[in-house]
Amino acid sequence: MSDIVEKTLTALPGLFLQNQPGGGPAAAKASFSSRLGSLVRGITALTSKHEEEKLIQQELSSLKATVSAPTTTLKMMKECMVRLIYCEMLGYDASFGYIHAIKLAQQGNLLEKRVGYLAVSLFLHESHELLLLLVNTVVKDLQSTNLVEVCMALTVVSQIFPREMIPAVLPLIEDKLQHSKEIIRRKAVLALYKFHLIAPNQVQHIHIKFRKALCDRDVGVMAASLHIYLRMIKENSSGYKDLTGSFVTILKQVVGGKLPVDFNYHSVPAPWLQIQLLRILGLLGKDDQRTSELMYDVLDESLRRAELNHNVTYAILFECVHTVYSIYPKSELLEKAAKCIGKFVLSPKINLKYLGLKALTYVIQQDPTLALQHQMTIIECLDHPDPIIKRETLELLYRITNAQNVTVIVQKMLEYLHQSKEEYVIVNLVGKIAELAEKYAPDNAWFIQTMNAVFSVGGDVMHPDIPNNFLRLLAEGFDDETEDQQLRLYAVQSYLTLLDMENVLYPQRFLQVMSWVLGEYSYLLDKETPAEVIAKLYRLLMNDSVSSETKTWLIAAVTKLTPQAHSSDTVERLIHEFTISLDTCMRQHAFELKHLHENVELMKSLLPVDRSCEDLAVDASLSFLDGFVAEGLSQGAAPYKPHHQRQEEKLSQEKVLNFEPYGLSFSSSGFTGRQSPAGISLGSDISGNSAETGLKETNSLKLEGIKKLWGKEGYLPKKESKTGDESGALPIPQESIMENVDQAITKKDQSQVLTQSKEEKEKQLLASSLFVGLGSESTVNLLGKADTVSHKFRRKSKVKEAKSGETTSTHNMTCSSFSSLSNVAYEDDYYLNTLHDRGDKELKTFSLNSELLDSESLTELPLVEKFSNCSLSTPSLFADNSMEIFHPPQSTAASVAKESSLASSFLEETTEYIHSNAMEICNNETISVSSYKIWKDDCLLMVWSVTNKSGLELKSANLEIFPAENFKVTEQPGCCLPVTEAESTRSFQYSVQIEKPFTEEILSGFISYHMMDTHSAQLEFSVNLSLLDFIRPLKISSEDFGKLWLSFANDVKQNVKMSESQAALPSALKTLQQKLRLHIIEIIGNEGLLACQLLPSIPCLLHCRVYADVLALWFRSSCSTLPDYLLYQCQKVMEGS
Amino acid sequence: MIQAILVFNNHGKPRLVRFYQRFPEEIQQQIVRETFHLVLKRDDNICNFLEGGSLIGGSDYKLIYRHYATLYFVFCVDSSESELGILDLIQVFVETLDKCFENVCELDLIFHMDKKFPALPEGKIQGANARELQMSEVHSAQICRHIFLLDSALLTE
Hints:
Chain A: Pfam families: Adaptin_N, AP4E_app_platf. By secondary structure, chain A is an alpha+beta fold. Chain A has 49 helices and 18 strands. Among the domains of chain A are: 477-611; 862-872 and 887-1029, Sandwich (Immunoglobulin-like), CATH 2.60.40; 1034-1136, TATA-Binding Protein (2-Layer Sandwich). The longest helix of chain A is centred in the middle third of the chain and has 34 residues, at 737-770. The two termini of chain A are 39 Å apart. A 5-stranded antiparallel sheet of chain B has the order 2-1-5-4-3, with helices on both faces.
């Protein structure tokens, strides 16, 4: 056990002290400790900061003299270090001692080294330049045979090792994973964990070794490896599904008490270890039934074992509940978990209540009835004295908001907002209110008023998206034009009233919103003329408290209003005043206004009424300047060169390629951030879906049904009858005074009961208004598909628009982007266009549909079909090539054979491209789906072919690809088939473009089809894509290579060991060429130049050099992450072969 | 992951500060000050978790604290930590200190230097394995500056 080692370790210092040669260690020791002690005592005895400063400065100067004196022994140095640390801790600068700390770590004996390392880890930080000097020491100590030295080195590595230096120690630390002592192995794992945190690409190749650590016989090592796994699984859970079994076994052992007793905490076996394992399981089992099934037993066991005797068991329970709800659901477990949540929510302990609310927030969208069960507790929490609890409750309410309870919930949120002063809270809550208001607003007045409150409270701290979205909403409007106008009119009116109020200061953002709305929509007003509005804006303009940014908004609003106000003195006055303004920006605006004002016709055409959301045609190529440029060139001006080109030329004049041997190989470029996590964070997921769930319920629920359960009259009849009983049991008046007193007391009690029940009633009222729409009717929709209908105002209109085909729509942001016609024409005969341009329209409908990416597009299938038919329909591959021969035996062999024939026919079709073999990715009793990759020059073409194994007719088979973060997937024509004839095969083609480099990603989607008109089914599949699928050779000359090489800033260097089979450079390069599709440009002696490009066109250059059996790779690219990924692939290839 | 461990007394005087992320001195002091004000406002009978704030890293972070006599122990952690787990970790931490100092009190954290305490080697005391497992999260078996000092003070003896 590690205990023994550690005991030895602690005993070691003592041993060393005893063994120290030379006279009087005891005396020296006394003087050391007393010197530090007296310093501490001296400082605490002082009364003022000033005195302390004086004393420390004195101390520091004496220390400075001592450490720099050549006669100072290491032992004295050690003592000085301790005092230096103390001074530094108090906040004084002791930087003169840093270098001595490093020296001490380098030179001293064990003890002195220890203090040296300690000082270094406290003084320096990861990017400190002096750390470079420590690297050698660390390397030496890692190779030491002394256990303690290795330990110290590993510790310091995991504390503050510079990222660029990792390659220098990595092999040594990898070796330590096989060390015989647990403590070394554990520390090595932790050091690698640290490396994984700061430079994940560099430790990618040792994942296998982490697996060994996971199976280590020592619990400490295993636990340490869990940190790495938690991290990696968070980033990409699909790569580690095969480990589920191991994690489950480990958890089983832990829960079953198989660990040494040392790991118990308050007789709970290794609680933190359990928590971590549960988290990992939760991540692994998410949306994966097969993996989840493996863990049901152990979760059940954990829930059962966690007897509630201590705080920490609650921690485990909470984690269990969390896991149960995040994996593929199992009803029994859900039931138990729900019970546990109940325990939390109802607990008198405030911490547990908090967690209960948190858990409710997690599960609310899966199981809204749970919130109903605890509604009274939630109501109580709303008035809880603890603001944190309150906030958590509001968060919970936010998740269950729907159109019926939105007013109550938003009101509660606003109440909280008015009490709160913390900026963080305001920003957070204001965003939520705005979102809810936008989604569920019951009417215009409420919406505008709520947004007013949001703007005035949120002020200038809120997220800038909020005012932007609000304005866009106003401008784009929604279904109904008259309603839009009403909303705008109401906004204008409410802002005018707000501006009329004296002595009220509004936040700048709010003023900006107001000025935009007034500028755009004042024309809707009947009573007030534009001139009056201008006067109000002018008054604001003259206000000193208004920032200059807001003033530009205001003046823009005035400019928009000027053509409507036939003649206004205010405008003239404004022009007069601001043309002499000191603010150049304002002055420019004023001049613009002045010139426009002189030409009213131009102004009217420039600033038309209610045209805010139409696109302007911008000539991005600045073609109107061509004449000017031509004139300049003809007069002998130099042609324009872009910045990078100029820099390149400058560089190539100065330098030539440097072929000096490399020094220590490490990457000098920063790894800009880690791989983007695959986005499995539960929290964000929930927030993404919650809104939709809420809305779905609204769609399906009837208000009456809920009233029956939770309405005023019907709610909790039991309690009401109880009060009735009590009033019936009123004590009969008696003569005895005592009894009178009694009676009085009873009465008092009773009245208390009555008032209490009144309060209760109020709460119940509140409850019924809050939880309306969450009735028992709502089924537990666990795997509910995302519903796209979400925003009351905006999205809905789009969907409708898409559905209604060519019905003319009133607004045109979306439409105009699809219309190829110029904008001016568009404005004038928009209606005409839409009617005439039907083909165009169909295209639009289709693309809108595909944008929505949901089942909606399935219903639109005929249209889609039409689209694909009318445009480039590719010749079907198998229409004529009938497969009748395989008809009778419906065995899998048949389908396999068919697949191969399919593949061969593809071969014929695409001989010019390399392609992968057909691979079956999913199947069921009716269809089987296989896929190929075709590596085309400009993209990766994915082909999925669907084979119908049954003899039945399949209708409207459709293939959808889930959107992926790193790809852009475009459908190739000819993908949609209305009827899949029995026993035939059809293919779908998608071209995949990469958006962001990655190592390996998963592309998933599903096939949906109808069988015999009745039964519709879906089949999900996923395909692994590797970076290599997107790498193509880049054929350039050596000269071009040299030029490009200089222009790229991102580079990575690394040495790779070659296996014997490829010891010579040409063979190694050949491997790279074959496996990675790199293009070999030239081989010069022991150096080689290679190049490749990442599709669509990110070049990457590689310079190789061989010495002995080491291949030095040096990548350069214009993309910062690409070299890292390529390096990883190279390493894999070189090690693999 | 644990981002910082702060210990200060009822008057906001820092007694032990350890950041696992590099902050300039002034920011560190500001964080301690702000944290103190946040924690001070709260009664003893309300929950021990504080969310978000602009202190370290923003909304993903939580402050989890415990109040013992004259000292506040505050751990700043990100969302990958279990709240209750950290709460118990603080308990373990204090228990550990208690074992070192025999009835730990604020003064011990000030004058600990020349006392003859058994130091804090890992794995020696009960519960420490659990602690250490968790502490490995912060890449260090030693908890903070004072403990470091304690350690070195022992070594100088």
